[in-house]
Amino acid sequence: MQDWSGLFNEINNAGSYLYSFFGAILFKLFGYHELLLPVVNLFFGMLVVALTGIIVNRIWGARPAQLSALIIGLYPFAAFNSAIALREEPSILAFMFGLYFLVKWLQEESRAGIYLCLAFFGLATMIHPGWVAAIFGVGVYALLLLFKALPRIVQGSLVTRGYFHNILTAGSIVILSLLLSAAGEVTLGKGISLGSEEETVAELIESQFTGMPQGGSAYPTVIATGDPFSRPWLIPARIVYFLFSPFPWDISSPQQALGMISSVLYLFLVWKIFKNWKTIRQHQECVALLIILALLTFIFAIGVTNIGTAIRHKTKFLALFIILAAVSFDSIRFRLLRR
């Protein structure tokens, strides 16, 4: 409804306004239609399925890639994100491109890979601030690379040009992460931020356990409220509820019973990751992905007190769970996959 100058004055990445701005651009270019944004999100969802298969194929091979694409393509809550106009799908797509270039960097020592990775993670963070955990995850992994490289440098061991470039890149990522932390009011999603002068990180975490849970699928009060430092079991309990709820005792309607699809899938994926831990940790790209997964899970889990909201948020990085769990998908046989 605004002219172009007025529209560009409305650019704001707070909340979901960036997605609204993107939609307004499409409407001004092509005219308004109620299905325009859902069609764009559907296309984004197809790309997410394809990227999941491509990344799994790079790490584990073709057959696990087939099953991985099948799982994420048929998971109803992932399909939901690409069926209506939500900011989740474009942010997931940007995150998936970031994962692809991260894997490319670690497998091929691609100089452009890490910078494209951070660029796409940054774009995802602009759409939804919780994705900043992915940037910090890369920073943590870069710090590990630096610590592993120090003995070789001190002992004067031969360092290849590519390895030296990775060390320099890792150092720059660590510096970037530290600058983000020191910048002040860096939002990690769901009210958690770093660098705030008013509150420490501990106080911000504690604040996530003070409000009463709301909604028809709210967490039990014993999980949602309390002092997480005097009762340290609250944090792992919140993470367990985030990943595996709803549990049978949480279901009070047939609609909520549909959430058991999520519970079963994530139990299966986490079990596969745990069972094949020794194999996964031998791949440096998987170690980086595990760090990112851990940070994303922690940040979103701390800020969520509703089962429905938990399902929506953890679906954002379902592909990351699948990529890691796909290590043993080649041993699973389905008739649908037989040629």
Automatic annotation (TrEMBL):
Pfam families noted in UniProt: PMT_2
Keyword Phosphoprotein: no
UniProt keyword list: Cell membrane, Glycosyltransferase, Membrane, Transferase, Transmembrane, Transmembrane helix
Transmembrane segments: 39-60, 66-84, 113-146, 167-184, 257-274, 286-311, 317-336
Recorded superkingdom: Bacteria
Membrane topology, from the record: Multi-pass membrane protein
Localization per Swiss-Prot or TrEMBL: Cell membrane
Residues of the Glycosyltransferase RgtA/B/C/D-like domain: 18-144
Entry-linked InterPro entries: LipidA_mod_glycosyltrf_83 (IPR050297), RgtA/B/C-like (IPR038731)
UniProt keyword Phosphoprotein, yes or no: no
Protein name, as recorded: Glycosyltransferase RgtA/B/C/D-like domain-containing protein
Phylogenetic lineage: Bacteria, Pseudomonadati, Pseudomonadota, Gammaproteobacteria, Oceanospirillales
